[in-house]
Amino acid sequence: MSRRPLIAGNWKMHLTVAEAVQLAKALAETARNCPDRDVLIAPPFTALAAVCTAVAKSTLLVAAQNVAWEVQGAFTGEISPTMLTDLGIAWAIVGHSERRQIFGESSAMINRRIHGALGNALHPILCIGETLAERESEQTFTVLQQQIQEGLDQVTAEQMRTIVLAYEPVWAIGTGKTATKEQAQEVHAFIRGLLTAMYEKAVADSTRILYGGSVKPDNIDDLMQQADIDGVLVGGAALQVESFSRIICFQ
């Protein structure tokens, strides 16, 4: 099955509103020149409204970097799904390794966020990934299976049509280390096999699985040639027009 590539940039805690708008406008032009793939950016919360307005007439997709499970209430510091859809946003990153590792978000909490997104017309990008210690102790597949099964608990096959998975080896995020194309493909194939077991082959075949972990202009082409890699979730290289444009326009 042909899966449409998705190139996503997670800007994390970077850029002022003006800087974010300038970058978004430039990337919207790049996306226009590469129409056979989806291009998504995830600005910081402070810039979401301005960026959405700036790229409203483009094909560029805009995502939030996180989303709460409740639509309103006493949840200081959280952003509700309806606050996002009110801006015209249709995507949200959930379970990023930094949320898990730095802020202690559990798989149970991430699952609640997934359902909060699904219940309010948002497409979740569920992030999963193992630490260096887990990889070195040969626990990669065990960790990923637990994160996927717990993260997708009570998610139906029909709902899976709106979900993207992103495999991000924690040991390769911001370290300059990158999984080889063979390592990345092996894990992506495992994930697709697991989805087949959890749902059915049609669901697994249609689910886009992204790779994230020090993705750069010089490794994007090799990564995107792998059978089960359907796109990338980019961090630092997504903050510069030149580098991210090269990634968007992979060969």
TrEMBL record:
UniProt-listed Pfam families: TIM
Domain of life: Bacteria
Catalytic residues, chain numbering: 96, 168
Subcellular location: Cytoplasm
GO molecular function: triose-phosphate isomerase activity
Reaction catalysed by this enzyme: D-glyceraldehyde 3-phosphate = dihydroxyacetone phosphate
UniProt keyword Cytoplasm present: yes
InterPro entries, per the entry: Aldolase_TIM, TIM_sf, TrioseP_Isoase_bac/euk, Triosephosphate_isomerase, Triosephosphate_isomerase_AS
Cellular-component GO terms for this entry: cytosol
Family stated for the protein in its record: Belongs to the triosephosphate isomerase family.
NCBIfam families cross-referenced by the UniProt entry: tim
Subunit organization: Homodimer.
Protein name: Triosephosphate isomerase
UniProt source species: Desulfobulbus oligotrophicus
Gene it is expressed from: tpiA
